[in-house]
From TrEMBL:
This is ABC transporter domain-containing protein. GO terms for biological process: cytochrome complex assembly. InterPro entries: AAA+_ATPase (IPR003593), ABC_transporter-like_ATP-bd (IPR003439), ABC_transptr_haem_export_CcmA (IPR005895), P-loop_NTPase (IPR027417). Residues 6-200 form the ABC transporter domain. It comes from the Bacteria.
Length: 200
């Protein structure tokens, strides 16, 4: 994990033919975290997708060293499957073993729900499941888009512990959030400072 890095240089982003922001630089090395802020529509999720390689930057360069896992508003779990089975699908793709999956479920306090069909999970339980998927992946770079949405205080504290352990192990975390997150001394990146047009 020690060589993990995520480096953005001069990133610009366009969506639907409209330039949202430009000139974004962010360098995160092993153990580094950043908190992305800015008003609705400024492009936080879009920047996350650029970091993940799911959206092409309009300008600039993205350097990634290490596997990436992202949790955003898409649950990406089969609603009809029991939670454990749905998460196992991703664990197999990510090359994660059973112990990693068990550890992630325990870390997000999901063990009592491992047989529950995903469609029956509450909003906060679904969010914890999405976070467990990232934790189990073993990826070194975590991209967390609004990870606190729907989480109660206890679950937020669990998230904080997982993030802390990940960073202590040489991981990287980039999070976007409108609410305070339990991140210790993250780099703060306010996209409003890079906006090109007024966000809708
Ligand atoms: N597929 C798309 N095609 C065109 N425009 C899009 C697409 N997806 C998002 N947009 C637009 O890009 C802009 C940025 O969206 P994005 O979701 O990145 O913002 P955000 O900062 O994450 O917002 P929020 O705080 O509401 O989550 C918005 O104006 C949105 O309408």
């Amino acid at each position: 994990m020690s060589e993990a890095a995520l480096r953005l240089s001069g990133i610009a982003c366009a969506r639907g033919g409209r330039l949202l922001f430009r000139g974004v630089d962010l360098h995160l090395e092993a153990g580094g975290s950043a908190l992305l802020r800015g008003p609705n529509g400024i492009g936080k999720s879009s920047l996350m997708r650029i970091c993940a390689g799911l959206l092409r930057e309009a300008a600039g360069t993205v350097e990634r060293h290490g596997q990436i896992a992202m949790a955003d508003e898409r649950l990406a779990l089969d609603l009809e499957q029991p939670l454990m089975q749905a998460l196992s699908f991703w664990a197999r793709l990510d090359g994660a073993d059973a112990a990693a999956l068990d550890g992630a479920l325990a870390a997000m306090a999901l063990m009592p729900l491992h047989d529950a069909p995903v469609r029956m999970l509450s909003t906060g339980q679904r969010k914890r499941a999405a976070l467990a998927r990232v934790i189990a992946s073993g990826a070194v770079i975590w991209l967390l888009d609004e990870p606190g949405n729907g989480l109660d205080d206890a679950s937020l504290a669990l998230l904080g512990r997982c993030v802390e352990a990940h960073l202590a192990g040489g991981g990287i975390v980039l999070a976007a959030s409108h609410q305070p997150l339990p991140l210790r001394a993250p780099v703060l990146l306010d996209l409003a400072a890079y906006g090109v047009e007024e966000a809708a």
